[in-house]
Amino acid sequence: MLRWMPRWQPIKRLALIKPRPFIRMTSNETKPNQPQQKIRNTWLRRRFSLSVPVLHEPPFPIYLRLAIYALVLMNSVHVFFTYVYEFDSTQGISMLPTLASFGDWVFISKYYRRGRGVKAGDVVSFKHPVRIGENAIKRVLAMEGDFVLMNTPGKSEAMIQVPQGHCWVVGDNMLHSRDSRMFGPLPLALISGKVMAKVDRPGTLPGFSWIEHGFQPAYIEDDDVD
């Protein structure tokens, strides 16, 4: 505990007084006038005494304590936004129509830092591998060991296997997105979190809209079967 925190010191106020012994009276006897006796047992005094807490004056002035409290609050906020959750705004058209080109606020879970628990189809936030100091939001298309097209579908049939410790990310608006098709597989260590929801403002009160998984299981319609 910090030295300037208040300490408690009990003050003995009252002590339990030993009751008078019971004496059976007869009709011819009178009640003896005996003085009250005090308890001499120190253990009983400590056990049954009433204590009142007393605060000691802190050794540091008020402005120094306020500065320390502000520093602790700032560190707590930093830890929360670094290792728990984060709110961030979006800018750009690469994730249309999932995220707006400007003004959307997203809710990012830091539990998925460094790719922990990330799966194909998740929308992740990561440190840009080319533009130092910038963050980007893309959708994970493939994980390590998966095969994926190196270019936009229809342009080339060349495929690549995602190396270990990496993932392949693309934007939902593939025609206007700079993603793994340009800078290659993304290291999982650059992932800073998973986008869980975005803030919707259709009316006066904002609400959350959860980001859905981008992939659906493949199926074959009856018309496609020969």
TrEMBL record:
Which EC main class describes this enzyme?
A: hydrolase
Gene Ontology terms: biological process: protein processing involved in protein targeting to mitochondrion; signal peptide processing
Q: Where in the cell is it found?
A: Mitochondrion inner membrane
Residues of the active site: 94, 138
Q: List, for all copies, the residue spans of the domain called Peptidase S26.
A: 68-151, 161-197
An example of a Gene Ontology cellular component annotation for this protein is: mitochondrial inner membrane peptidase complex
Q: Which UniProt keywords apply?
A: Hydrolase, Membrane, Mitochondrion, Mitochondrion inner membrane, Protease
Please list the GO terms describing molecular function: serine-type endopeptidase activity
Top-rank taxon:
Eukaryota
Question: Which Enzyme Commission number(s) are listed?
Answer: 3.4.21.-
User: May I ask which residue range the UniProt record assigns to the signal sequence?
Assistant: none
Where this protein primarily resides, as one coarse class? mitochondrion
Name the family: Belongs to the peptidase S26 family. IMP1 subfamily.
Against NCBIfam families, the record matches this protein to: sigpep_I_bact
What is the protein's given name?
Mitochondrial inner membrane protease subunit
Provenance organism: Zasmidium cellare ATCC 36951
